[in-house]
């Protein structure tokens, strides 16, 4: 167990940088905070580089008894230093430094998958977190995040996923390339467009064919370049006076429709 007492400690300074996207990209790592998310990332066997505890955290021994063998480095911080690493109003006193994980190649994932989700320029962390959590619950095989989508490793996204970020393979990729690859392997790419003539309930679902759903930006929707490449564009009917559905809600409706048709 190592005690860090100063904000000028070099290791602590590196952790502080993980609160920014650039810092996460430079280090290939990110911070996870709170008992639930730390438990989820450990259970999912992501590579945890360090466990960090506030000095007044009451359950250090319990965590070390369970995970000391699998996490070689453990640190204690004074509460003010720990709280400076936290993005929540009431820090729980436990965090982890986690190395970003490498998944199977995108090509292999596509070949092996029956249901994929492509996310185009979704910028709200809460929306992306809910989309990833929904994808996990709906049994999506992998998620592809297009350019302009919010960083999935940000604290707000991770808290919104409630741990689902660690359950579903995800890739940051060019969605036009992903779309072409899916179609080249016989998959069906489904676009979402409010003005589309095809009601999602009439979407033809083939049990043995990979289905890939594209959902888009909160205001602009799916980029026109992508919509021109899809096999079918679908819409969700609105019977009330709302102009549109939240992107995360729409994602859930369609994913569950696809899975209910198959099951």
Order of helical and strand elements? EHHEHEHEHEHEHEHEHEEEHEH
Rg: 21 Å
Low-confidence stretches at least 5 residues in length (pLDDT < 50)?
none
> Structural class given helices, strands, pairing?
alpha/beta
Biggest sheet strand order reads: 8-7-6-11-9-12-10
Helix coverage percent of residues? 25-40%
The shape is elongated
What percent strand?
Answer: 15-25%
The largest sheet, given as strand count, sense and whether it forms a barrel, is: 7 strands, parallel
Average pLDDT across residues?
95
Number of helices: 11
Distance separating the two termini:
50 Å
Query: Could you give the count of β-strands?
Result: 12
Q: What does this 3D model show about the protein?
A:
- It is a single chain.
- The chain has helices spanning 10-17, 21-27, 35-43, 60-67, 79-85, 106-112, 125-137, 155-161, 175-184, 224-227, 247-262, and strands spanning 2-3, 29-33, 48-54, 74-77, 94-99, 115-119, 142-145, 170-172, 188-192, 198-199, 211-215, 232-235.
- Helix 7 (125-137) runs parallel beside helix 8 (155-161).
- Strand 7, helix 8 and strand 8 form a beta-alpha-beta unit.
- The N and C termini lie far apart (50 Å).
- The protein contains eleven helices and twelve strands.
- It is elongated, with a radius of gyration of 21 Å.
């Amino acid at each position: 167990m190592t005690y860090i007492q100063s904000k000028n400690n070099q290791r602590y300074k590196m952790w502080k940088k993980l609160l920014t996207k650039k810092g996460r990209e430079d280090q290939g790592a990110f911070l996870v905070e709170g008992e639930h998310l730390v438990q989820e990332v450990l259970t999912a066997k992501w590579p945890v580089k360090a466990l960090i505890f506030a000095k007044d955290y009451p359950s250090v021994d319990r965590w070390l008894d369970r995970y000391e063998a699998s996490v070689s480095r453990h640190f204690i911080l004074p509460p003010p230093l720990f709280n400076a690493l936290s993005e929540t109003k009431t820090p729980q006193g436990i965090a982890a430094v986690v190395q970003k994980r490498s998944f199977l190649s995108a090509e292999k994932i596509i070949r092996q998958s029956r249901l994929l989700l492509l996310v185009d320029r979704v910028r709200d962390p809460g929306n992306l977190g809910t989309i990833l959590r929904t994808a996990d619950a709906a049994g999506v095989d992998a998620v592809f995040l297009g350019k302009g989508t919010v960083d999935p490793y940000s604290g707000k996204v991770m808290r919104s996923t409630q741990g689902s970020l660690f359950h579903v393979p995800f890739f940051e990729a060019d969605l036009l390339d992903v779309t072409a690859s899916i179609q080249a392997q016989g998959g069906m790419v489904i676009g979402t467009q409010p003005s589309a003539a095809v009601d999602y309930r009439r979407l033809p679902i083939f049990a043995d064919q990979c289905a890939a759903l594209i959902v888009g930006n909160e205001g602009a929707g799916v980029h026109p370049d992508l919509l021109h490449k899809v096999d079918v564009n679908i819409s969700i009917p609105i019977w009330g006076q709302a102009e549109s559905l939240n992107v995360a809600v729409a994602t859930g409706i369609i994913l569950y429709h696809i899975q209910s048709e198959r099951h």
